[in-house]
Every structure is written in C-alpha cells, then in structure tokens.
Amino acid sequence: MKGPFSELSHPREIIRNFIPGWFTVNMGTGITGIVIANFPFPFHGMVTIGSIFFLANVCMFCLFTILFVARIVMFPETIPPLLRHSQSFMLSTIPMGLTTITNHIILVVVPTHSWGLELAYVLWWIEFVFTVLCVFCIPFCMMRLQQLKIETANAGWLLPILPAVVTGASGCYLSRFLESEGHRAPMILTLGSLTLGCGLSLAFPLIGIYFYRLIAYDFPPEDVIMTSFLPVGPLGQGTYGIIEMGLACQKVIGDKYAPGFGDSAFTTCLIMAYFMWAYGLWYMAYGITSILVRSRSKIPFNMGWWGLTFPIGVYTAGTLNIAVVTKSRFFLGITSLLVCSLVLVWFFVAYHTICRIYTGRVFRAPCLQSPPKPSDTEMQLCTQ
User: What's the pLDDT band for 383 if we cut at 50, 70, 90?
Assistant: First the structure.
C-alpha cells in the first residue's frame, strides 16, 4: 500500500504544484452547504449540516489561500508558465469561492448576528475587486499569451467571465439586507446589476462558440469532458441573480422612479429567469449526454471533476428561487431532486480527491509538466 505523498519527490512539491483550480473545491463545497440549508422541504438538522459545510469551506479557503500565496513567494518562476497556460483560467475560481462564503454568511449569520452584515459587506467588496481583475486580466492573457484554437475550445473558456455573474448575483442578494434609506443598498444593487449584466452579456457569445465547437468538432476529449457542465454555471447563476435583482428592485427602489417600477422590474426579471433556466436545462442534458458518450473509454479523474458541483449547485439555487417566488410545487420537486444529486456528486468527487491527496497524485500542475503535450492547448484542469 502506498504511503502518504509517496508519489511526490518532496513535500514541498505540494506548494510548487498547487494550482488555483483547488478553489473549485470551495465553490462546490460552499454551494452544496447553501442548498442543503435551503432545502425546499425542511427537515431537522438541515441548517446544521449546511453550517458544517460552511465551516469546512471557510477552513479550506484559508488553507488554499495560504498554499497559493506560498507558491507565489517560494516559487515565483512558476507564475509565468501559469499565465501562459489555460490553468490561468482557474484564477477566476478564487473570487467565486469567496462568494459562497459571503452568501452563506448572509443566509445564516446575518439573521442572528448584526456584525454578519458588515462582514458580508466587506467580503463582497473584496470579491468585487478580484472579479474586476479576473474579467479584464485573464481574457488579456488568453489573447496575448496563449494560443487557443476553435477546434480545441471548450466550456472552460467561460471561467474568466463567470465571476462577474456570481459576484453580481451576490451583490443583488446582499442589497436586500442593507438599509434602503441609506446609500449602500442602492449602490450595491447598481454595481451588482451592472456586473451581472456584464457577465451574462459576455457569457452568451462564449456559450455560442462552445455550441459551434460541439457541432463542428464533436464533444471535448475525456480529460476535459467534465467542462461540459460549465455552461450550466452562468445560466443557473444568471437565473438566481436575475430573480435576486428583481426582488431587490422591489424592496430597495420600489416606486422611487415611477409608479409600479419595482413590481414591473421584478416581473421582467422573472420572465428572463424562465428563459435562462430553460437554456441551462438544455446544457444540463447535453452535459450528461457528453459524459455518457465519453464513458465508453476511460475518463480519468482530475480536479476538473469538481466542475460538476458548482454548476449543478447554482442551477439548483436558481430553480429554488423560481419555486419560492412562484410558489410552484413542480419547481420545488425539481429542486429537491437536484439537491440530492448534488450531495451524491459532492461525496463521490470528495472521496476520490482525498484518496489522491493521500498519495500526492493530485499535486501535478499541468503548466509545469515537461515536455509539453500537444493537448496542452486544451483546458486541462489537473492531471490524474
């Protein structure tokens, strides 16, 4: 039996090969805790279970931040290869991982502790700054430093844009808890809405490019097939965020600009949410189909498997928002099914990740592997 870190030449290789893709664990763990705490059919202990996921998420986020900063400080020579590689897309997972913590604080801590709102407010501004950097800097690296081709395109191209959707939705959610008579609620609602709109506007053409790739060049190869679920992310989070924007307009703005403005905005947002939910359902179906097709050959386990959790989670959150505002038992039932599926996927992926952490097999940064492979232009989230 292999011992701890037996596949590493030295324990410091953990730091040298620590990739930003580890923050997808935060994203998946955080959203799983949130949807469990919001399970549509309440049961005893669901908030406690969600809080356990939340505490684990906070601990992992702190640990991953320390390890990634240590890589930058101890091995600065590994940063240029990271920026030239598609692994740079994964830098966008940092603000998204932080957003799951912010939203859970609003959900659980704010109702019982007044300081929770101030903490969430500060964290939102931090993730907003990181989001702006990701949305502008990572596409710049894609354009100038990387050689990307349409035949090797995959849904991973959405990752640099996704933080705008996630942070924008979080801002709309946060604005509903701020004092409407002050300046903070309208300001956060405005910034959140603009960020959400920017993210969705950029995501739609990228999803179209991915659709063209599917038609022209078949499904992505086995090592990146899990990215097939990524289009569900902006569509599911967009569904959630658009409804949050409508609810915030009702509460924060109301009839300030015109009679019935808040209610009209909410109605418009709800209609848009239906469109995005249906759009996401199509990509959910094709994500499952693509995995079934590629499962005929061996699909290697890698960190990309965590890409299953967050898209399913935010799509679940969007479905729950529709169910709550429309009081639809149909959507409540779908939400329950999605929550159960997400929990099963999370435990499956977590188990395989822990097994590979024990041997050290998972600590291999694709951008540092040599000689480079021809498939390096693909979005290799992590080697096996």
Answer: very low
Rg over alpha carbons for the chain, rounded to the nearest Å, is 20
Quick one: how far is CA 233 from the chain centroid?
A: 7
Residue 115 belongs to some domain of the structure? yes
Is position 356 within any domain? yes
Count of domains for the chain:
1
Tokens of 357: 């952490």
Question: What integer pLDDT is reported at residue 375 of this predicted model?
Answer: 41
Tokens of 383: 């080697």
Residue 29, in any domain of the structure: yes
Closest CA to 381 of 230, 231, 165: 230
What stretches of the chain show up as alpha helix (H) in DSSP?
Answer: 13-16, 23-37, 46-74, 79-84, 93-104, 115-144, 162-175, 184-217, 232-248, 261-294, 309-326, 329-359
**Residue 22 scores a pLDDT above 90:** yes
Give the angle 372-378-384 at the CA atoms, nearest 5°: 70
Which residues make Cβ contacts (< 8 Å) with residue 182, sequence separation at least 6? none
pLDDT in tens, 175-206: 999 976 678 999 999 999 999 999 999 999 99
**Residue 383 in domain:** no
Question: What is the CATH classification number for the domain harbouring 358?
Answer: 1.50.10.150
Ramachandran quadrant class, 254 (left: phi over 0; alpha: psi -120 to 50; beta: rest)? left
Say if pTM beats, i.e. exceeds, 0.85. yes
- Whole-number Å distance between alpha carbons of 172 and 273: 14
| Cβ within 8 Å of residue 91, ≥6 positions away | 20, 134, 138
For 335-361, what is each residue's pLDDT tens digit?
Answer: 999 999 999 999 999 999 999 898 888
**Which domain range does residue 228 map to?**
11-368
